[in-house]
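Give me the fold.
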Amino acid sequence: MDEKSESNIKKSIEFQVENKVAWITIDNQEKGNGLTPEMRNHLIDLFESFNGQFEIRSAVITGAGEKFFCTGADLSASSQNNDRSEKTPSLVTGQIRRMMLDGSIKLMNSVLDCEIPVIASVNGTAAGIGAHLAFCSDLVITSETARFIEIFARRGLVPDGLGAWILPRLIGIQKTKELMFFADDVSAEEALRLGLCNRSVPASELETKSREWAERLAAGPSRSYMFTKWMLNKSLDVDRMTLAEYEAWAVEVNASTHDSKEGVVSFQEKRNPEWKGY
């Protein structure tokens, strides 16, 4: 990637750290904050970079402006390989599958597997994989003017970005079918009622509430959060006894952390704990 392309990506994905909180802003407003392949890959790199360190202890992802959180893939951008010879077909069987696994699915996995809590601060329309990016986050706060759209059926497409995995686990399979078959807009009010978000606040309060939660998490026992997130995500896919084994190991490993010991000592000494994040 040349320096100009790298500079453009950094402008499209704004990143800064404040009070141990990573703030990630998608800024491609002319395309509804849609993600180009390069933007998507940069997001994956960011989320994966948070693992194994404690300087950044929570993250917030949001969209620039007031209209869009993320409306999915920027379809005007192409990652097609143009290096094929004239005798080679433009699309080879297996190519789309690989694009999916290395693209939107990898992005959602990077959020689900991120060791720190991720908050989606949904400031506007979240559609397609943009909606799934929010739903795969650990906590979702929306502006009252935000909306979610399972837009795929409007385009004759199959839902991607792990939507068919995460949505039934959040709202049940029949309601998921309704949202995916009809592709109707879901208001912030309806999303809150269904359990697709944790809070819905006036637009003027969205950043404040997101910052409050993110900084509260960043000041907490990070390894405890990491193991809790890992166990809860595992619980969606395994039987009771398997989860019990995961739980036992998580408790044992966490017991060796500074914050676990500090939690016990501070309780015994009747004082507030001083969390270090390790």
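The beta strands are 13-18, 21-26, 58-63, 68-70, 118-122, 125-127, 139-143, 147-149, 185-187, 199-201.
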